[in-house]
Structures are given as C-alpha cells and as structure tokens.
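Hey, I was hoping to borrow your eyes for a little while. No rush at all, and the record is pasted right below:
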Amino acid sequence: MIKNKSAFPILDKFFLEQRIEESSIIIKQAIQQTDKPLVIQFSGGRDSMVMLKLVQEVTDNFVCSYMQTGIDFPESVEFAKLSARNLNCDLLISTPKDHLGDFFERLASFRTFPTVRSTWCNRDLKVRPQQKMLNRIFGKGNITKLIGVRRSESSRRMSIYKWGNFTRPDNNVGGANNVYPILHWTDADILGFIEARKLSTSTLYKKYGVSGCYWCPFYQPSIYKKIIRDMPELYNEFVRWEEEIGPSVGNYIYLSDIIKQVQQESYAIQV
C-alpha cells in the first residue's frame, strides 16, 4: 500500500486527475437520469469509499445503501456504519428478510451453492432486498444506483463490462439503472485517491485481502485459509451443508478439507 505522496508517481497523479474528471462527468449524467436521490452501493470497502467521496464532490442529493447478506464479516457492517457516519452520509441497510429469507433458507430451496456462473446469493440476498427497501422509501420508478465495479479487477470483469459502457439497466430488478463511475480506475488510482483524500479503509483487507462477506463463490482457498485461522466457527453451517449437497468452494473443494489443512499446518508449527 502507498505510504506517502512521494511514492505515488507523477504520471499516476496525472492519470488519477483524468479519472476523477471522467467520474465526475458520469455522476453528473446520472443525476439527470432520475428525480430521486442517487443511491451509492456502499460496503465500506475501498472502491465504495472512493465512490462516496467522488459523489460528495458533485452533489449532496444521495444516500448510501449497505446490502447486508447475513454472511457478512461483523466488522464489515460496523465499519460501513462508522464510515458513513464519519462522512456524513445517510446509510440505508437492507437485509435478506426483506425478500425471501437468509442464505441458508435460500440454499435449502436451491440445494446448490452459488457459483461464479450462478450468483443467486447476489440477486436474492443483495439486489432484490435492496430494491424492495428503496421502493418502500422512495416509491417505485427509476432508481439510479452507483456501483463500484472496476474492469481492471479481473479478466471476467474485462469481458462483462465493455469499455465506455457506464450505464446499464439492472437485469435483476425492474425500474433501476446501474451506473459505474469508476469503471476504468486501476488499483493505483484507488490507492492514490484514498491517500489524497485521507480516507480510512477496513482492516479486513490487511488480514484477509477481502471485506464484506466471509464466504463468496469468487474466493480462492487461500482466502478461506486466512479467515479460518482466526474464525473457523464462521463456517460451521457451511460444513454441515457440504455433507448434504457437496463442496462449497470452486473447483470442487470442500471447506471442511481446507479447515483440516489449516489445523494440520497449525499443529505442525506447534510441534
């Protein structure tokens, strides 16, 4: 992570200024798309922190929306609340009970874990509960949501999000548009902006490399190993369900096997 301004190259500063200008234009265009406040998808993560600050520099007609899944790190929820309070943002929190039930209730219905090709957890635990909450508060109609997706995060996102396509309808819910103000930002841009604006970031990044949910179909075994070393009890219910319907980690890997591996490594170190 960048420690001081001198560590941030001049060329990167130039590109960051261009990113900020581009994002400001996208946000201003988003304002014209709706007669309701802009809704910032706010997780308390780095990207959503940057997006919140960018929006604040353009308008004060917005709210932050945290989509609580029920399988969040406890620290994620508390950090989102604290960050929103410190940045003077109204924080709305949706929960799966606003829709069809929690993760394991939906799992009992689907009888299969979410995968990278079928992320029903995002749809049923996040997007649809949030939309019901927003409709209840603001009424039905065009709701514009600002989402901190970046193309540079993965080859998958490179293929899904086309260059320059900053706005698209939300396919999971009607009457909503998704806008991507930081679509072209790089890791260096994000870190440079955080440093320049003196924004706080979650300690979960340093611990595990992720924040938000402690289980995700996109997580690799290396992430789970880090979490298990501190909080193996988080996965007790996942392990129980694995006995019924199969592995929960990509490439047919069982969490129970990862837990055993961590225990063996810990024992070897102690010996």
